[in-house]
What does this fold into?
Amino acid sequence: MSSSDIIQIIYGALTLIVLCVTAYFISHAPVNAVNIGRQLNTEQQKDNAKRNLFLLLFALRGSPSNYDFVKGLNQIDIVYEDSPLVRAAWHKHYKDLHDKTIPEVDKVWNIGRVEVLSQMAQSLGYGSLKASDILENYYPEGHQYQENYYFDFQQAHLTYLKSGAALHQMLIENASKQQSTDSNQTA
It folds into this structure.
């Protein structure tokens, strides 16, 4: 066996190895592409969920008792599960929301909301958003008038229902007394 035969055998073996490797990658390329596509899609969905939650909370930051705002706060742990700074700010704010001994509670809650939103903004890449920007919000007087009207209406409705129930109870007691006195007179 000459050296040219050995070179041809090595060349043939290398060609066969390259052919096998090429066939392997060609056969697995579609599966890998689908897996990469799914991973990118999942990451995009997570990013969209983070952005949507941030925008919701940011839009409602001046109305912390709004149901959607509260619902959004309760989603932070799952949506930002991979953002420890956001979750830490949320957990501190949550603790403050339940601490009844805090003096000047409204200021502390406001600062807590700002801190949560600030951490969310940082994690999403909104680095130029300042705490002063987060503190500013627009809440028209008409909304406050509407809330006050609704509250007053609810209070009046409650008073009406309570007085109606008391009147009903009083009528039943009077009818019962009348019935007992009538039965005593006939006996």
